[in-house]
Design brief:
Blueprint lengths: L3 H7 L5 E6 L8 H16 L4 E4 L11 H10 L3 E7 L5 H13 L4 E5 L20 H13 L2 E4 L2 E4 L6 E6 L6 H17 L4 E3 L5 H13 L7 E5 L3 H8 L10 H10 L7 H17 L4 E5 L5 H15 L20 E3 L6 E5 L13 H13 L7 H11 L5 H16 L17 H4 L27 H10 L6 H4 L14 H6 L4 H5 L12
Parallel strand pairs: 1-2, 1-10, 2-3, 3-4, 4-7, 7-8, 9-10
Antiparallel strand pairs: 5-6, 11-12
Amino acid sequence: MENKFKQSLLDKSVFSVTWELVPGRGAKEKAQETVFLNAEAAAKSGKIHALTITDNPGGNPAILADYLGMEIVKLGIEPLVHFTCKDKNRNQIEGQLYALARANVRNLLVMTGDYPVSGFTGRAKPVFDLDPVHTLKLITELNNGLEIEAMGKTQKLQSTDFFAGCAVSPFKRDEAEQMVQYFKLKKKVEAGANFIIPQLGYDIRKFHELIQFVRENGWDIPVIGNVYILPYGAAKLMYENKVPGCVVTKELLSILEKEKDAPDKGKQARLDRAAKMYGFFKGMGYDGVHIGGHGVKLEEVEYIIDKGEEFAKNWMDYVHEFQFPMPNGFYYYEKDEKTGLNTKTPTNRKNRPLDTDVPAMYSFNRFMHELMFEPGKGLFGMMRGICKSIDGSSLEHAFTRFEHLVKVLLFDCENCGDCALFELAFLCPMSQCPKKQRNGACGGSFEGWCEVYPNKKKCIYVRAYARLKKYGEEETLRDIYVPPANWDFYQTASWINFFLGRDHVGRRLGVPYVPPKKKK
């Protein structure tokens, strides 16, 4: 069966439209029945190319997006299932993909996912075993026919046909926060992302920045605009940073507050604003739109489509209506004063101040790394010899505990044994990032602060960017792929694993491999 959503996105003559449906908690509650009623109506409409199904939105439990996707396929319309990494380990993710492939649910939006906030008798334990880059790599390998080792033989599975996309946020205030979003986007594209959807905001210059950034990097993949029918209540939550990743400024909130006093409580203004967003997305070269909003009806979505087609003809006329920049916000490109959008000249980042302090201890860490951990230099040979002698001996346990103690004091180490400190400016993603992201920041940070600890802890990637930029090395965050942690190494000495070429860093640097010795 043909994938009509994929066809619509890849056909340059078609402007693709997806409509987001948000399931709630429960099996047969009104929210679930509404999803199916809307799905049936959308299938009959012919104007919607896919229905987007959220996965445990807001970090709360909800009916499985997978199940809803399987049921929606039966109605004759394509589902676009949000595929998040927060609640399951890599085996569960792989098994989930097998089930979706079997059910002919092929369109996926791969995301980190909201940090869990509730659950049965308390907050659920977050998993985050894979990040979106890892998951996209897995999906790409499944599409190519995943090769697995079993019983000493190599088996190649039948190829799947997933069409998987990714998310990115252009709506970040600080340079470090924004650049790590784009660095991670590069890794997602290289991992096999088939399309891109930005997170939600209302600064047209930022939407223009993203499409220009994608095209100038030579990524010939579709980009879908994010249109949200924004009422005052939701806007207030976004302004207060209670919906991670969504940005509403004080100026926009003030406009919405005035609109809600109208006889229709601002409904027409909301619909027209969404239609204008449809129009400028089409005008500036996006390949489609994703339309969302609480309690939205099909006739409202159809109004946005029809009116949006009209607005698209003269979209430049209302650029000024969507200029809601963050105060002192960073832009990747310099501003075009004539249009209110961007020139093609990148902002000079070299002399911009760092977004957060760099501790003096970082210089010491760099010195010790160069002294001991650079292959062929300093004390590397001696350390390799010591690790060879200790490996498998009665001293290994004490050595492991000594290393762990040192790294707990310096780096809050979780003793995973497959260390990523070298790649992240001596910041541990397993202990210092609540979502354990090994290839870049999630989209939930705000003004440099971690989504889970706002105004308390800076995002570790903001900190890593500042540390590396001080030495002109920030682009290493863009270029180095960090694989998922290998749990075979859990609570083993990462120094032994590195110096004997067993962990991912040792392999990347070409450290000669020494097989593990049997414990004495």
